[in-house]
Structures are given as C-alpha cells and as structure tokens.
Design a protein that fits this description.
six-stranded parallel β-sheet; globular; 602 residues
Length: 602
C-alpha cells in the first residue's frame, strides 16, 4: 500500500511536537489513540512512545521529563476514564508550573451528540487544571490549535494544556498542509522601573528583612542573585512549603529551610521580622488548618514586597505594599543594585545581621554533623529511624563520581532530605507543590529518560505512596530506566498520622475509635518481592548497620543502567534528634519545632 499523497491530521500534530523538541510521548493505549500512537513509529516524526500501565503514571512520567529536560512533556490518554485517571498528577503539574501537552482521544465527531460509550465533556473534566483546554471541532482546526497550545506552553506561567481530539480527525487531511511552526514569545521582561525603585526603597529601609523564595527562583536559575541579595540585606532565606525545586543552596548559612505547614509554625518563623521579600512564590497557603482569629498565614505586621513573572501570584492572598511584575533573573539584579545605592541602606546593620546568621549556622552545623555521625553509621541498630535514610545517602553521596537527583515523596522527613543531601542545582531536587500522592514513581520514569545517563536518580518514597503506582516499575524495567527506589516501609500512612495529631492538638478532638485505617497493617508489603514480579532486582533492609552497604549496591546497579529497589523497614515512629527546620528563632523549645515540622501535607 502506497503512503497518502497528503498528510493526515496526526502528521500535522507531530510537526509541532518535533518543532518543540519533544522526544517522548507517554501513554496508555486506547482504541481512539491508535492512529496517534502509530505516528510515533515513523522515524522522521522524532517522537518515541513510552507505554505505561495507568494514565496517572503516563502523566507523572511526562511531568518528570518536562522538569528535567526543559521542554514540554507529552502524554496520550484515553477518553473519559483516562482523563479521570490523570487528574492527580495533572493537578500536581498545574500547581508546580510544569508544561505538559495532553492529547486525549475522543469518540468520532459525528457520534458525540448521541452520548456514546465512554464519551463525556473532557474539556470540562480536565480544564480546571490546564492553562488552556480545547476539543478540536474539525480537522482544519488542528494547525491553529497546536500553534495556540504551544504558544501557551512556552510562555509563563508554564502549565499544562489539554487537547481533546475526536479520533476521526487524526485520519483526515487538513486543507492547510504547511509544516507546523511554534511561535516563541520573548518573555524575559524586565520589571517596571518605578516598581523596582519602590521595592528597593522598602527593602533598604527595613530593619529586620527576611526573604521568601519560591519555585519561580529555581525556574529562573536565580541562586546567585538570591545569595547576593541575602548578604546585602543580612536576611535569612526561607522557601515556600513543599516547593517542587530546591530554590536556594542548602549548604549556605542564610538558608533556613521551608516554611512549616502550620499557621502557628509560620508565625513562629517569621514573627520577628518587619519586611518580607517574596520572590517567585507560588504556594501561599500550604497548611493543614487555618483559624481566622490567628490572623493571616504571613504575620499581618509584615511589609510585603513581591517579585514574580505571574501577576496572579502577586498580592493573591494578602496586600502587597510593593508588587513588581517581571522576569526574576532580569529584574532582581536591578532591585539589588538599587538597594545597594539607596541612602537608607545601612551596611553596618546588614553586616551585624549577617554575623548573627553565620554564628547561628555554625552552631547548627556542629549539631547536625554530630547527629549525622551517629545516625549515618550506627554500630548496632534493631530498627532504622526514617530520618537516618537521607543521612546515610548523604554520606554515600560524598563518594560518588556523578551528581545526584533526588525525587522526594516522603513528607515526614522532608526537612532532613533537604538539609542532609547536597544539591548542585535547583532541579537536583524534585517534589510537587500539588500534594496529590502517587507522583514520584511515575515522575522517576521521565526523569530517568531525561538525565539518567548524566546523573544518578534516587526516589525516596513512603510505602503508602509507592502502593499507588508500583506498576510504574513495569515501564522502568521495559525501558531499563536507572533509578534507585528507597521505599520507606513502616506499614502506615505516617503523614496522615501526624496530620491527625495536628487536628487533635488544634481542636482537642480525638477519633471515636482507634484510627486503624491509617495503618497499612496486614498483609505487610515486601516491595523487593513486588519489584521481582516486574523483573527488577532489590532487597529488604531491616538493620541500620546494613543500610549503607545496601544503598551502595543499589547505586552501583543504577550506574550500570538498571533500576533497583530497597525496601527499608523503618521504625513506625521516629523524629530527627536535632532542629532540622533551622528556625531563625534561638530559644524556641526543640519539642515545639519537632512538632511543627512533622505536620506534613494532608
């Protein structure tokens, strides 16, 4: 059979994917998508298909690939069930500002009015978590829709787009047969000069400034600018809670960790400051419980200066005294220069604040080193505290020749993961700001495809989260994706247990009966055996003294190009022995700090 003389609708789609540099499309095969999937078998289209066993895995893999490759991710899903299945990770991608293009195969266009099997309003289902969502109404729309979709994908804020395609349009030929080209908007716009001057004036006059960085900083690769700013102001640097990137180097003294996920905790951290400079902050209400009588999440007395490239995030939840809309990488140096030249900038006071921060950091560094020495190489241990795992990984990291990329989905030890391990770039750490569980195993697939040969990929994941999508390991084995999976197996939903503790503390309420439903209990899961069913090697570790050797073995397997699973039997209740929060408030009771930091996402 000879190929058609005119190109089909699906061929036009691949023109745009190729022009955007997209290498992979992740999906679950469905009848309506077969023509589109078939297009990935044509070498000149330049896109390879990566099958998964669940649509949320495909979406998560596309999300991981997009974050690490710097290009949009692509997923192909199936009609109503497929669209419903992606919502968790579509939400994560939307909240984490990750650009994805999602193609969904819809029923035949002439049949839709009759409400056929599986058909529904797909745009309505997915649209609330997409920057733009559209259902194609004729084959001739395809070039315009693709052009518009990629224009949205490549312009801030970077978020998913969703395209529903009645399958018959994939096999029809559009009238316009020109090659697809993607409009790229030059979006690195410098902030308004008056706004820059106002921001500098407010910050130069501050007596107790503090900096709050968000994912916009990591997106802009603005670590050097934040470091210069923090020294200039003598200001501590906090990160938005549950950031999807490492938005400031964790080995620098001004870094104080993330804001804790409680109203009281944020007030404890920020209450002594008078001015806060929020830079690229996307997640402004990452707490479990809010009580109006306690005031806003950020203390009400704080003067707020905000810089962002997304106007929606400026003054979204509280009044901003100064709001500057502009590219962070371009605008921040102008604000820094204006502060340095401002008559009210007190270099002596800033130097004094810097000395206090350095002294506090020295004390914390000594305490952390002492704790790490005890916990990273225990002589005897019947159980393994959960916080010990990232500490041991950090010790092993010092011996590696390749850099680490860590995917974290164990929120109970998030402060330790962020403090103990060293990160050489914002994207060396990956989480999501959405909080929908079941993202890390899927994301690891796309991350490994993007960077698995240049870096060592480690996925730290709780047992409850891992059980969402252990079938992601089918794809990991099928494509030999080198990821070390550290499954924190304590047979319970620990973040939910700590969430319950928060509710009990704040409201004085207790469950009517034992909360057995928050413990996984019997039957106990052996993740090494589960991995074996997918053809992946692994092991179970029950003693702390054997943990380092197991991690070293796992990284050696990964270095050789294969996945590996370590089922780590951690103690059901453990807490870091030191202040992992690095709270900028000397004298705060350590028990209060541990209690605040333990309250992870709901």
């Amino acid at each position: 059979m000879h190929p058609p003389t005119t190109r089909l609708g699906r061929d036009i789609i691949f023109d745009y994917l190729r022009d955007a540099g997209i290498e992979y499309a992740f999906g679950v095969p469905g009848t309506h998508e077969i023509p589109l999937i078939d297009g990935t078998t044509i070498p000149e289209n330049g896109v390879s298909y990566v099958p998964c066993l669940h649509e949320n895995i495909a979406l998560g893999a596309a999300m991981g690939y997009a974050r690490m490759s710097g290009r949009p991710g692509a997923a192909v899903v199936h009609i109503t069930p497929g669209t419903a299945n992606i919502i968790g990770n579509l939400f994560n991608a939307y909240r984490s500002n990750i650009p994805l293009i999602v193609f969904c195969g819809q029923q035949h266009s002439d049949l839709l009015i009759q409400e056929p099997i599986l058909a529904s309003d797909l745009v309505r289902t997915a649209g609330q978590y997409a920057k733009w969502a559209h259902e194609i109404r004729s084959v001739d729309e395809i070039p315009i829709v693709m052009q518009r979709a990629f224009k949205q994908l490549l312009t801030p804020p970077f978020r998913p787009v969703f395209i529903s395609i009645p399958w018959n349009f994939l096999l029809e030929s559009p009238t316009m047969q020109e090659p697809g080209r993607v409009t790229r908007i030059a979006h690195a716009v410098t902030g308004d000069p008056d706004g820059i001057a106002a921001a500098a004036d407010q910050l130069a006059r501050a007596e107790k400034p503090v900096i709050l960085v968000g994912d916009g900083v990591g997106e802009a690769d603005a670590w050097p600018e934040i470091e210069r700013l923090s020294h200039l102001l003598g200001a501590a640097v906090y990160s938005e809670n549950q950031a999807s990137r490492m938005n400031y180097p964790n080995d620098l003294p001004h870094w104080q960790g993330e804001l804790v996920p409680t109203q009281d905790g944020v007030h404890m951290q920020l209450g002594d400051f008078d001015t806060i400079f929020q830079i690229g902050v996307n997640s402004q209400a990452q707490i479990l419980v809010f009580q109006w009588q306690k005031g806003p999440i950020l203390p009400a007395h704080l003067k707020q200066v905000v810089l962002h490239n997304d106007s929606w995030e400026i003054g979204k939840n509280s009044y901003a005294d100064v709001g500057v809309l502009g590219d962070i990488k371009r605008t921040l140096p102008l604000i820094i220069d204006a502060i340095a030249e401002h008559d009210s900038h007190d270099e002596t006071a800033a130097a004094q604040r810097n000395r206090a921060i350095l002294a506090l950091d020295a004390r914390r560094t000594d305490a952390f080193a002492t704790a790490a020495a005890l916990d990273s190489a225990p002589e005897q241990a019947a159980t393994i505290p959960d916080y010990q795992v990232p500490m041991v990984l950090a010790e092993v990291q010092k011996t590696l020749t390749k850099p680490l990329t860590v995917i974290n989905e164990d929120f109970a030890i998030l402060p330790v993961v962020q403090k103990a391990i060293q990160y050489d770039s914002p994207d060396a750490y990956f989480c999501t700001s959405g909080g929908a569980l079941g993202f890390s195993l899927p994301a690891s697939l796309g991350i490994a495809l993007a960077i698995g040969k240049e870096r060592l990929v480690v996925n730290i994941v709780g047992d409850g989260s891992a059980l969402f999508h252990t079938n992601a390991w089918w794809t990991a084995r099928k494509f030999d994706l080198p990821v070390l999976y550290l499954v924190m197996n304590n047979h319970e939903y620990k973040t939910l247990m700590t969430g319950l503790a928060a509710i009990e503390q704040i409201y004085g309420w207790q469950p009517t009966h034992d909360a057995w439903y928050l413990r996984l209990g019997q039957p106990n899961q052996d993740f090494a055996r589960i991995a074996e069913t997918f053809g992946i090697d692994g092991e179970v570790v029950t003693e702390g003294k054997k943990l380092r050797a197991a991690i070293e073995r796992g990284l050696e397997v990964v270095e050789n190009g294969d996945p590996y699973i370590i089922d780590i039997r951690i103690a059901s209740a453990s807490a870091p022995p030191i202040d992992m929060l690095l709270a900028e408030k000397p004298g705060v009771d350590a028990a209060v700090i541990e209690q605040q930091q333990a309250m992870g996402p709901p």
